[in-house]
């Protein structure tokens, strides 16, 4: 596992923005399609089972693309990405949560999201 510097993680996040935006859009489409294809589900103009399967396949491809960068996809709704790093010799995960303007948070690897702190300036 390679480690990211803060600058590298921020650059990777910037490169991933279009992929992340597509994941958010497809996530909503897949949820609507999944509900529509259930017995008694409300029909949608998005389509039916073939479109749901296509959306799920595309989501899988996009999530794989994110993970191939070395980032860890920790959540889909909301999107949560961690970039393995080290601060002052301590293993940390640089943490981005859907809605964050940029990469400004981290948490120790052993603490998880509950230990999330602002990155020092």
- Spatial order of strands in the largest sheet: 1-2-3-4-5
| Average residue-wise pLDDT | 95
Structural class: alpha+beta
Could you give a short account of the major beta sheet? 5 strands, antiparallel
Q: Assign a percent range to the helix content.
A: 40-55%
Number of helices: 2
What coarse outline follows from CA principal-axis ratios? elongated
Compute the separation of the termini in Å. 26 Å
Strand content: 15-25%
**Can you count the beta strands?**
5
- Radius of gyration (CA) equals 17 Å
What ranges have pLDDT less than 50 throughout 5 or more consecutive residues? none
List keywords for this structure.
121 residues; alpha+beta; 2 helices; 42% helix
Description of the molecule:
By secondary structure, this protein is of the alpha+beta class. It is built from two helices and five strands; from the N terminus they run ααβββββ. The chain has helices spanning 6-36, 49-68, and strands at residues 72-76, 79-87, 90-97, 105-108, 117-118. A hairpin with an 8-residue loop joins strand 4 and strand 5. Helix 1 packs antiparallel against helix 2. It starts with 5 loop residues before the first helix and ends with a strand.
């Amino acid at each position: 596992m390679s480690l990211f510097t803060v600058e590298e993680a921020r650059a990777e996040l910037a490169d991933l923005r279009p992929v992340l935006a597509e994941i958010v859009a497809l996530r909503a489409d897949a949820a609507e399609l999944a509900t529509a294809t259930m017995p008694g589900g409300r029909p949608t103009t998005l389509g039916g089972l073939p479109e749901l399967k296509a959306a799920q396949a595309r989501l899988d491809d996009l999530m794989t693309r994110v993970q191939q960068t070395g980032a860890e996809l920790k959540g889909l709704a909301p999107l949560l990405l961690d970039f393995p790093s080290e601060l002052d010799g301590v293993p940390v995960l640089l943490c981005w949560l859907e809605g964050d303007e940029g990469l400004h948070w981290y948490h120790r690897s052993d603490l998880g999201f509950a230990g999330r702190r602002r990155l020092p300036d």
